[in-house]
Design goal:
Largest sheet: 5 strands, parallel
CATH architecture: 3-Layer(aba) Sandwich
Order of helices and strands: EHHEHEEEHHEEHH
Number of strands: 7
Strand order of the largest sheet: 3-2-1-6-7
Strand content: 15-25%
Number of helices: 7
Number of domains: 1
Helix content: 25-40%
Length: about 190
């Protein structure tokens, strides 16, 4: 299985989109909680393009996951025109000291790493192609990409990270890079 860890703000919408879209805030046809208005249709098309070329499943890593079930996230993106499958969301981890919230957020890369370890049995090996292939053969997740406009990822996720700009969101260049990453084997990605 291939996974897209999907951020939403800065990926499926952007400053450019908010400036280009027409003001529908007073539109009587706009249903309350109609989130499709939040998404740039071109970005949704590019996400569909990635899914079409890779058959990857989506795990939502965006703050949009907070307080929402996977089914809610699927419906929101379905209504916006996405036709792929959302299979899960990453956990929201917070730093605690003596059992109390410490006011610090754990980097998103850590939440993704935890999800990969727990759900995908994914492990990166840095010393041997042969050993990496052995771990990969046992893993559920065979490859992944992180699509995000923030940079709080781990160093060992660098080959999997495609950073968008919150000014423009998901671009064709970003989408093509995601496809390139997802359609490579991990051996190619890490060792060649």
């Amino acid at each position: 299985m291939k996974i897209i860890f999907l951020d939403i703000d800065g990926v499926l919408n952007s400053r450019d989109w908010y400036m280009r879209r027409e003001d529908r805030s007073k539109d009587p046809g706009l249903k309350e909680r109609d989130f499709s208005y939040e998404f740039d249709p071109e970005a949704i098309d590019l996400l569909n393009y990635i899914e079409d070329k890779t058959h990857a499943k989506v795990v939502v890593s965006s703050t949009w996951r907070l307080g929402r079930r996977v089914e809610d996230l699927q419906k929101i993106l379905d209504d916006a025109g996405f036709y792929g499958e959302i299979i899960d969301k990453t956990p929201s981890m917070h730093c605690r000291i003596d059992g109390q919230p410490a006011g610090y957020r754990i980097p998103r890369g850590c939440e993704i790493d935890w999800w990969l370890s727990k759900n995908g049995e994914f492990q990166r090996i840095n010393w041997s192609k042969k050993k990496q292939q052995e771990y990969l053969d046992k893993a559920i997740v065979k490859n992944y990409v992180i699509l995000d406009d923030d940079s709080d990822m781990l160093y060992n996720q660098r080959e999997h990270f495609v950073r968008t700009s919150n000014l423009y969101g998901l671009t064709k260049e970003n989408a093509d890079r995601c496809i390139e990453i997802l359609n490579k084997s991990l051996i190619e990605l890490y060792y060649e």
